[in-house]
Each structure stands twice: as structure tokens, then as C-alpha cells.
Task: inverse folding
């Protein structure tokens, strides 16, 4: 490693007497893509702003480019060499200005000489493939394009260090992957150093090195491989009948255990894979084991293990109210959509959508922003009348009995729709009243929700004072106050740390298996899509794939081949030669590449030609790969037919 | 059927409690409401005055005769305050320009001699009429003083003493002041400020309560619940109406009655009942603002846009008869106009239901229209 760009020692930042970050040591070297990983409130933004010289700090020392940032004047001295992209989609851009005007504005603001700015603008717009849209106002861009434009504006004055605060939050998987590829190209080609934060754990492997932050302090630091070695272990994934009893046995032994649709996935601190397999087989004695795979652990598993996987199984009570058909999904339909169409004027937001969700099934609705997910949910929850088509939800007809549907379903929105200035109990009582529960029923449900969400001891806290994970479970509780048989969850896990997310999914699993509640979930976290029993993928208002996660993966395997991981020192630089050699699905991951191909021999051949001797390693395909593969295909098709601009 | 009502009542009750709790926890807003209904009304009633008080006056006496001194000495407090003398015209103008004086009285040389000789003479008065009302008042007061002096000196010259004046065939104007015998500005200003504040909050509070739910995203949760749009709105409007009525009570019983001794001639019950009707219906305008606005700042700006013409066209500043025809027409569309008539009628004149019939009908009619339109708009945004 050459010279140090950022050096923090004992760094701490206080807000009103409370430390957001405390005693943090960190070093970032030239040319690194350095990641700060952690949930909301871990202290990522505070550190990044301090490094950019726009936030003062109380504790320790912070050096950037060898300059100690201890005063306004010293911070000013390094700002010319730094580019900062704040959190939020297009937050630093001007909505009414076009792409080109935004770039020009930042160039002038940074006093970049006119000719130099023009040349760099063309180069950056070409790399980000925004040149074709240069006259489009920023506010009309998609989330992914906004972030690319943000990146261009951050780079226009040729900084040596760029600081990107959660650049991929709220961006769909395809654009996210595109963004990472562009970033890798820029870093490799322009000698940049980047400090990037993310809340998506599955993006961790894209960094050269990273720090995992939790509640203001550092849990681990290193390259992905180094961090994986911190907690040696492996993953066992199995399909066992009946799932619920298998789950109970496994959790008792290995708490870091979660249900993925019909499968169970667990992390075991046992690096020897055959031994791990044997241990699981022993525990599952007497149950019908249909399938059992042992895999390498992922970064997220290790993070969760480090965060203290002990508390994964929350205090969810084993006996929940209204036990319905136990075990797998029953045949009773909870949601049935038949040819739903919604038009707004000439614009078709949803065109001919049909699917079915059975009682006790977790159904995932995936799709990029603007694919029509929200409109579909709005029609099914009775908020929006469909232009045509029909549907039944919770046994009531969508067109005639909107009011009846509303009283039978639960709904949890992305914003956790809680009243932050009301206490936990007041929130629950409010929703109980709205759904017409009488005092006795209300008190029973209140206890149930407090048990389910693990909120005892917080009864009189204001919702605003709760950490995100608890807030999310309170919102779930409020949505369940009237014991609905159908539950709609619209991106229910944004902003929650991985532990909280796991606990949340654990509750959803129990609800579906023990109480037979049907759930329709939308999510941006592709790793979460694997928790669903069934998935529907929406694109441009239509359902383009409707199958179980396993089926979807197998389909992609059959069409596009196996996923391989290629290790190379100059990984990012290999992307374009590989693409030129006909490998369409190449994506940089830190010091490695992921390539999807049916022909591994040819890949090996091409790699040898490029000077890479290490053979590619086969890897299990992830839901994100499926999503990106499917959507890129569809985008290519619609570009070819010219039906979508 | 009974169960339906019970359910609706339960929903209404929990939503109402929720609104009140939320408002109760918003310390800043609460402090603002209390300030507006007490201190602000106190300031308006004691500070704002439409009469001429201590107008800064400079004199330029170029005559220095007994006559000029006699005339100038009649410019007295409380209307005029002689701040000193100026020598030259330029100095007088400068004093006006710089705002040191509102009035400059210039007595020409030979003023006294001309009067004594029975020659007509004149006096120059320069008035700063930047504030047209005060300028007008200053002019007319000064005119009165000068003409009285002119009359007296003419009589004197004719050899008639002061006693003779009474025997002249003069027309006396006998004034009977009703409803506000001491012509206290504080009564008018205090009450109309209270009504204005009630109007401002009647628009602002429901708008803020609604937009906050939009911003937080909680409105989505309410819409997917069995609550109807009306069921979401009604508790908000009712609770905010209650809060505003409490504010009106606060300003009446803490400020207007004890400090400014406003007589409550009519029925307080009737006053509060009609205030309730007014605030409730005016909330429709707030709903309108909340429907269009996306956040609190936008809702606030829209409310100001709605309120400004409403307040100016209310008749508090200018009676309808004094307005140009087309504005007068608009005025009858402002519910505040009727509410002013009702409030002054009950509080100062002691009017009852019978006297206020047409005003109540006007206010109620427009109110129902406004509220209905607000509700319709609000519902439509979710379809």
C-alpha cells in the first residue's frame, strides 16, 4: 500500500451530549474503494462529513491528505481535492436544471477552466452513458440516473478523493450494479480514492477494504477475505418437512438460522464442511430431509455473527392467536388478481397483472422503481380502483367491497407509518380504535403485540425514541392489531440493521406458518427476496416472471449459465476486455469479478489470455443475479422494439 | 345499525384523542397559539391606534406677535406635540424629509398686524401624509383649530366678546356615541385582532395537522384502514375547532375583559356557538391548502395566500360601503365579514339571534360551501 489518504485516530463526534461515533481508528490508502458499512445511525455519515471537512468533531484526530483537520481554515485547504456526494437521491442536484446544466454549474462553482471542464464533462457523460439525455431535467431522471449524474458532478473538478454517502440506497438492483461498475472503472482508470458507505450488506464484497460500523464504533476492518476469516464457518441450506419443527430444532442449536421460503439457511461456526453437514443431519434425525447443501459463508453471515447472532430469534411467542392451517400453504386463496389494469390518462401504470397468493404464503413482488408495484398494491388494498380487471382479497371482491377488504387486511408501509409523537401503547391503542376493537379485545392484542415485537419496557416511550428495528416491529404490530388474514408489506425493512431485519423476517415466517397469514411483500433487498415462498417480477407494468426463487434461479442457470468468481489483482480493468470477448454478465466485486456464463472453458481461456492464471470458482447464484439478468434482458428487448424510451 | 354507530363513534373518539395528544406534545405550536391569543391581542389592542396622538410638530414663527403666539399655543397635546422651532424653509423641509416632524406650521411675518388691521391673512401648514389616515386627521384637526381662532379673532374685531359667540345663529352638532362611549380604539382593535387570529388558526391548524400526516406517510396507513376520508378529517377539524375556541376564551377572559374592560352585552353562549360554526367551516380552506401542499412549508405559504385577501376584505379596515363595487361583491364572499358583524354585534351591541339572522345565514351558507368544497377536493386526491 502506498500513501495514506485518510487517517483517523480515536475519532469521535458528539450530538447534544450523545456520541454518534466514538474512538474510531481508520486508514484509507490511495487507490482504494473503501467501504463504510452499517445500518442507519451507525455513524457513517458523521465520519464522512468530517472527512470532507464540513463537520467539526470533538474527539481524536483526523488527517486527510496528511493535513490535520482541526480548524475551519485547514479543512478549507483540502476541499479542492475532495468531492462529496451527500445521502439521498439527487440531493445535491437541481431538479429544474438539465443534466448538462447541472454539470456546468458544478464546474463553474469549482472554478474549473472552461475547456478542461468541457472535455471532462464529455468523458464522464460518456462513461456514465448519460450523454444521450443531456437536455433532460434532473427531476425527470430515474433514481439510478440521478445517482450517476451526482457522481459526474462530484467528479467534475477532478478530485483525488471522493466521498459517497449511501449512493445506492433506494436505487433498483440493475442500476445499482451499473453504478458499482462505473465506480470501479473510474477508480481503476483515474487513480481515484473513494470512501463509500452502504446499508446493503450484499454490497460489502464490492469494496477493496472496509470497516463495519455499529452504534458508533468499529466492529471489524479489512478486505472481504480477511473479514470472512474473522468468524470461520459455513452455511448449511436445507429443505426439510415439516419446516416449522425443523426450524425449532435448528434454532435451539444454531441461533443464526433463518427460513428462506420453503428452505432453512443457517450459519455454523464450523469451517469443516463435511463435519457441518453431519451435525445438521444428526439434529434433523427423524424428519424428512429433501435437500441439504453446504456453502461458503457470505460477508453478511459473518457480520451478523459478529453483531452477536445470539439474539436472532426474538421473543416471538410460540403460540400466536388464531392458529390456522399449520405447515405449508393451504389451497385457500388470499389474494387473486385477474388481469388488473390501471391507466392514468394515456400512461399504463399496470397492464394486465394476474397472480395468486395462498393463505399462509409469503409472496414477493419485485421490480425496479416505476415498474408498477406500488400501483398494484394500491389496487389490491382498495385505495385505487382498477381501470379494468378484477380481483378478490381476503374473500371480498375488489370492485364491490373495497370497505370490507380494508377491514380485513393489514398494511405496513415503507415509512413505518407510526405517529412518532405518540408512545408505543398510544400507537397501538389508536389503531385498535380505528379497527373498532373494544376495550377487552384491545388489551389482549396490546399484550400480544408487546410480546411479539419485544417491546416490553418500552411501553411508554415515544415512537420517535425507538431504534429503527423496534419501530419497524411496532409498525408490524399496529398492522396486525385486528388479526388480519392478509398482510401487505411495502418495503418493510428499509433502514433497519441486519439483525433487526432477520428478527423481522423470523416473525413474518412464524405468522405465515403458524397463523396462516398470507403476505405480499415488496423489497429492494434482493437477499430478502429469498425469504419468499413465491416471487413475481414486474417490469414496465407487467408481471414477467412468476415462480419460486429456486425455479427462477434454475431458469437463469439454464439460460445464462453458471456464476463464476474470478480473482485478479486488476479486477476492475478486466471488465471491458471480458465484455468485448462476448461475456455480457460481468460485474466487479472488490478485487474479484462475477461472470455469468454457460461456457467456463472459454472463460478460462480468455482469462489466461488476459494474464489471469487462477481458475474461476463456481458460486451459487443469488437472487440479485436473477433480477439483474431478467431485467437487463427485458430492457434490451424493449430498446430493440422501441416500445419503451 | 346501532353497532355501526358505536363503531363510528369509537373511531371518532380515538382519532380525536390522538389529535389533541399530538397538539399537546408540540410545545412550539402550543406556545405560538397561546402567544397569539394573549400577548399578540394585548399588543394590538394597546399599541395600534387609528387616532392622532402626539404628532411631532415644528413651528416656524416669522411673526413673533401676540397673535401668532396665541394661535400656536392652541396646538396642544394629546393631538399635537410642539417639538421646537425652525428658522428657515429649508430646515423645515429637511425635518419633514428626515421624519423628525410630521407637521410644520409657518406663520408669515405681519400675520398679527394684518389680523389687527382687518386684512385677510393666511398660514402655511406642511403635512407628511405618508400615512394617509394620520395625515388626514392632522389636517382636519389643524383646520379646526385655525378656523376656531379665525372666528374668534373676527368676532373680537367686531367688538363682540366671547359671550356674544353663543348668541350667534350657529348650528350645533350634538353627538351621541353608542356602543363604545369613550371611543376606545382598544375595543375595536382588540376584538378584530382576536377574530383575525381565530381565522388564521382556523385555516392553519387543520392544514398543518393534515400535511404532517402526509409528510410522515401516516395518511397512507389511515387510508388503507376502514376510515373514510370524512372519518379522517372530521376529528381533525373538531379538535382544532375546540382548541381555537379555548384560545378565544383565553383572550376574552384574560385580556379583553379584564385589561381593556370590554363589556359583553350579548350572550357569550351564542358568541361561542357561532364562533364554533365559523371556525369549523373555515377549516375547509385549510383542507384545500393541505390537499395542494406537499409539506408544511407549502401549506403555510398557501394559507397566507388564502388569508391575506380574506382579512383585508373582511370589513375590519374599511366598511363595505366605502369600497369600490366589485370589491364589495367579493367581500360578501368572505365568511370573516359576517363573523365580524356577528362578533361585534353580540359583544358590543348585545344583539341576539333575531338581529343576526342574515349574518348567520350568510356565514353558514358560505361556510358550508367552503367546507364542502375542501372535503370534496380532499377526497378526490385519493381516487
Result:
Amino acid at each position: 500500500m502506498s500513501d495514506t489518504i485518510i487517517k483517523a485516530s480515536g475519532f469521535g463526534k458528539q450530538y447534544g451530549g450523545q456520541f454518534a461515533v466514538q474512538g474510531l481508528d481508520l486508514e484509507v490508502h490511495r487507490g482504494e474503494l473503501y467501504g463504510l458499512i452499517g445500518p442507519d445511525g451507525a455513524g457513517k455519515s458523521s465520519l464522512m462529513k468530517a472527512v470532507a471537512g464540513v463537520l467539526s468533531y470533538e474527539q481524536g484526530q483526523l488527517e486527510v491528505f496528511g493535513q490535520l483537520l482541526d480548524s475551519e481554515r485547514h479543512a478549507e485547504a483540502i476541499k479542492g481535492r475532495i468531492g462529496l456526494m451527500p445521502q439521498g437521491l439527487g440531493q445535491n442536484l437541481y431538479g429544474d436544471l438539465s443534466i448538462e446544466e447541472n454539470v456546468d454549474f458544478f464546474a463553474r462553482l469549482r472554478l474549473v477552466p472552461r475547456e478542461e471542464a468541457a472535455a471532462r464533462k464529455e468523458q464522464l457523460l460518456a462513461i456514465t452513458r448519460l450523454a444521450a439525455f443531456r437536455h433532460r431535467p434532473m427531476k425527470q431522471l430515474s433514481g439510478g440516473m440521478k445517482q450517476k449524474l451526482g457522481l459526474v458532478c462530484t467528479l467534475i473538478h477532478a478530485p483525488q478523493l471522493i466521498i459517497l454517502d449511501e449512493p445506492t440506497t433506494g436505487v433498483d438492483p440493475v442500476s445499482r450494479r451499473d453504478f458499482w461498475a462505473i465506480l470501479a472503472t473510474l477508480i481503476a482508470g483515474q487513480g481515484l480514492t473513494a470512501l463509500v458507505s452502504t446499508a446493503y450488506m450484499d454490497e460489502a464484497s464490492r469494496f477493496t477494504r472496509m470497516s463495519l460500523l455499529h452504534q458508533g464504533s468499529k466492529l471489524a476492518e479489512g478486505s472481504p477475505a480477511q473479514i470472512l476469516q474473522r468468524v470461520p464457518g459455513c452455511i448449511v441450506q436445507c429443505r426439510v418437512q415439516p419446516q416449522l419443527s425443523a426450524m425449532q430444532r435448528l434454532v435451539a442449536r444454531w441461533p443464526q438460522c433463518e427460513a428462506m421460503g420453503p428452505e432453512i439457511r443457517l450459519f455454523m461456526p464450523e469451517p469443516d464442511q463435511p463435519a457441518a453437514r453431519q451435525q445438521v443431519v444428526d439434529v434433523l434425525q427423524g424428519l424428512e430431509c429433501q435437500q441439504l447443501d453446504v456453502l461458503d459463508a457470505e460477508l453478511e453471515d459473518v457480520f451478523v455473527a459478529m453483531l452477536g447472532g445470539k439474539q436472532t430469534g426474538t421473543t416471538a411467542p410460540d403460540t400466536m392467536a388464531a392458529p390456522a392451517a399449520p405447515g405449508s400453504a393451504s389451497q385457500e386463496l388470499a389474494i387473486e388478481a385477474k388481469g388488473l389494469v390501471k391507466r392514468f390518462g394515456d400512461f399504463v401504470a399496470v397492464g394486465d397483472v394476474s397472480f395468486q397468493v395462498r393463505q399462509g404464503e409469503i409472496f414477493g413482488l419485485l421490480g425496479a422503481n416505476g415498474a408498477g408495484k406500488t400501483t398494484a398494491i394500491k389496487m389490491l388494498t382498495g385505495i385505487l380502483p382498477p381501470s379494468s380487471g378484477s380481483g378478490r382479497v381476503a374473500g371480498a371482491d375488489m370492485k364491490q367491497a373495497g370497505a370490507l377488504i380494508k377491514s380485513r387486511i393489514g398494511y405496513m408501509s415503507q415509512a413505518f407509518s407510526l405517529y412518532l409523537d405518540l408512545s408505543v401503547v398510544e400507537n397501538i391503542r389508536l389503531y385498535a380504535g380505528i379497527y373498532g376493537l373494544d376495550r377487552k379485545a384491545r388489551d389482549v392484542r396490546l399484550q400480544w403485540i408487546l410480546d411479539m415485537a419485544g417491546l416490553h419496557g418500552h411501553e411508554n416511550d415515544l415512537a420517535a425514541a425507538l431504534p429503527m428495528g423496534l419501530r419497524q416491529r411496532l409498525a408490524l404490530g399496529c398492522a396486525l392489531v385486528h388479526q388480519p388474514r392478509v398482510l401487505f408489506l411495502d418495503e418493510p425493512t428499509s433502514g433497519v440493521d441486519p439483525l433487526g431485519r432477520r428478527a423481522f423476517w423470523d416473525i413474518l415466517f412464524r405468522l405465515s406458518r403458524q397463523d396462516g397469514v398470507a403476505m405480499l411483500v415488496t423489497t429492494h433487498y434482493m437477499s430478502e427476496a429469498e425469504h419468499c415462498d413465491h416471487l413475481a417480477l414486474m417490469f414496465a407494468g407487467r408481471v414477467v416472471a412468476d415462480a419460486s426463487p429456486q425455479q427462477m434461479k434454475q431458469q437463469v442457470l439454464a439460460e445464462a449459465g453458471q456464476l463464476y468468481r474470478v480473482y485478479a489483482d486488476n479486477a476492475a480493468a478486466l471488465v471491458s476486455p471480458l465484455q468485448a470477448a462476448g461475456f455480457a454478465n460481468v460485474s466487479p466485486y472488490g478485487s474479484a469479478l462475477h461472470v455469468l456464463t454457460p461456457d467456463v472453458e472459454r472463460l478460462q481461456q480468455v482469462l489466461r489470455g488476459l494474464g489471469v492464471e487462477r481458475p474461476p470458482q463456481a458460486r451459487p447464484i443469488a437472487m440479485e443475479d436473477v433480477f439483474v439478468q431478467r431485467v437487463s434482458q427485458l430492457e434490451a428487448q424493449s430498446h430493440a422494439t422501441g416500445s419503451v424510451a | 345499525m346501532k353497532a355501526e354507530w358505536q363503531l363510528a363513534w369509537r373511531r371518532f373518539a380515538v382519532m380525536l384523542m390522538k389529535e389533541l395528544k399530538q397538539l399537546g406534545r408540540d410545545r412550539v405550536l402550543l406556545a405560538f397559539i397561546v402567544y397569539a391569543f394573549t400577548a399578540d391581542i394585548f399588543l394590538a389592542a394597546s399599541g395600534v391606534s387609528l387616532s392622532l396622538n402626539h404628532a411631532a410638530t415644528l413651528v416656524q414663527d416669522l411673526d413673533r406677535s401676540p397673535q401668532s403666539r396665541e394661535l400656536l399655543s392652541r396646538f396642544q397635546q394629546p393631538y399635537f406635540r410642539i417639538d421646537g422651532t425652525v428658522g428657515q424653509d429649508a430646515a423645515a423641509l429637511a425635518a419633514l424629509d428626515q421624519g423628525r416632524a410630521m407637521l410644520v406650521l409657518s406663520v408669515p411675518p405681519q400675520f398679527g398686524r394684518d389680523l389687527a388691521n382687518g386684512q385677510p391673512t393666511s398660514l402655511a401648514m406642511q403635512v407628511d401624509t405618508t400615512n394617509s389616515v394620520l395625515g388626514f386627521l392632522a389636517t382636519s384637526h389643524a383646520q379646526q383649530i385655525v378656523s376656531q381662532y379665525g372666528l374668534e379673532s373676527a368676532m373680537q374685531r367686531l367688538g363682540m366678546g366671547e359671550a356674544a359667540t353663543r348668541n350667534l345663529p350657529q348650528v350645533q352638532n350634538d353627538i351621541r356615541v353608542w356602543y363604545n362611549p369613550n371611543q376606545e380604539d382598544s375595543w375595536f382593535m382588540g376584538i378584530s385582532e382576536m377574530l383575525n387570529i381565530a381565522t388564521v388558526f382556523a385555516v392553519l391548524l387543520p392544514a398543518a395537522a393534515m400535511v404532517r400526516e402526509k409528510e410522515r406517510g401516516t395518511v397512507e396507513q389511515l387510508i388503507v384502514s376502514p376510515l373514510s376520508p370524512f372519518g379522517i378529517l372530521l376529528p381533525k377539524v373538531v379538535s382544532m375547532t375546540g382548541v381555537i375556541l379555548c384560545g378565544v376564551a383565553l383572550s376574552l377572559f384574560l385580556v379583553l375583559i379584564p385589561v381593556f374592560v370590554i363589556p359583553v352585552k350579548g350572550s357569550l353562549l351564542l358568541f361561542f356557538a357561532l364562533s364554533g360554526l365559523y371556525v369549523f367551516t373555515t377549516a375547509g380552506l385549510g383542507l384545500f391548502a393541505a390537499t395542494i401542499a406537499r409539506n408544511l412549508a407549502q401549506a403555510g405559504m398557501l394559507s397566507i395566500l388564502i388569508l391575506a385577501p380574506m382579512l383585508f376584505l373582511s370589513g375590519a379596515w374599511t366598511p363595505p360601503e366605502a369600497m369600490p363595487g366589485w370589491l364589495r361583491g367579493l367581500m360578501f364572499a368572505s365568511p370573516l365579514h359576517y363573523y365580524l358583524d356577528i362578533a361585534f354585534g353580540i359583544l358590543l351591541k348585545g344583539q341576539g339571534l333575531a338581529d343576526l339572522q342574515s349574518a348567520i345565514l350568510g356565514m353558514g351558507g358560505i361556510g358550508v360551501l367552503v367546507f364542502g368544497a375542501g372535503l370534496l377536493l380532499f377526497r378526490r386526491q385519493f381516487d
